[in-house]
Model the fold of this input.
Amino acid sequence: MMVTGAAVYLARMGNDYGSRWRLMICAIDEEHFLRILFVCTGNICRSAMAEAFLKQELSAVNGRSEVACSSAGLQADEGGAPPPEVLSIMQEFGLDISGHRAHLLSREDVEGADLILAMAMHNSSRLLTEYQEAVDRVFTLKEFVIQGVEKGREIEERDPAKRLVELRKWIRHIEGLDHDAGEENLNLKLRIFMLHYFHIYDHRFGIDDPLGQSMDFMRRTALEIRDAVLCLAGSDLLALTDT
Done:
């Protein structure tokens, strides 16, 4: 899979408190982007929230962004609007997503994404039953953030396409899913697929669906998504820099 003109890599950054890890995205030029796809079930709540939060954060970076993000649902009712309670919660964060419309995940969405961030394990497992070829690009949002923050390492690779590959490999490595000596690539992909399919996973990495729950539950979910997105896009983990 070729990266569309941008790359993600972990780098050690110095600050007043010593070294820290940051996930870096560098654009090659203004017309090329890293494409991030958020996925949930109906695309009217969690993934729509994640998309809105990330766009809000990225819009503050030099007035533009080297990241293109979108969202989709595995069982979305195409064109459906978010329910009033979702709109109300997002307004509390200063975001108007009344114009958002649900989009049913398509093969074109999967093939066009450099990084696919599902909201929960059952989302990623269902996605991978249909799009097994995307196994190297699928993570949950919290998995990608938590593993990057807790166990990041510097990646020296300079080629943009290879940077993203190296980052994904490293996250799989710290999950015990790295490529063993002599192991065929197909076997590794099967192991990753089985991990997602059978939910053999750390429960810290999922975000529950708040639809049908109380407003307090939905508010906590929005905060959980926002915090993960802030780690992805904010000063703690991700820095956007021009080359």
Remarks:
- Residues 6-242 form a domain with the Rossmann fold fold (CATH 3.40.50.2300).
- The first strand starts at residue 6 and ends at 15.
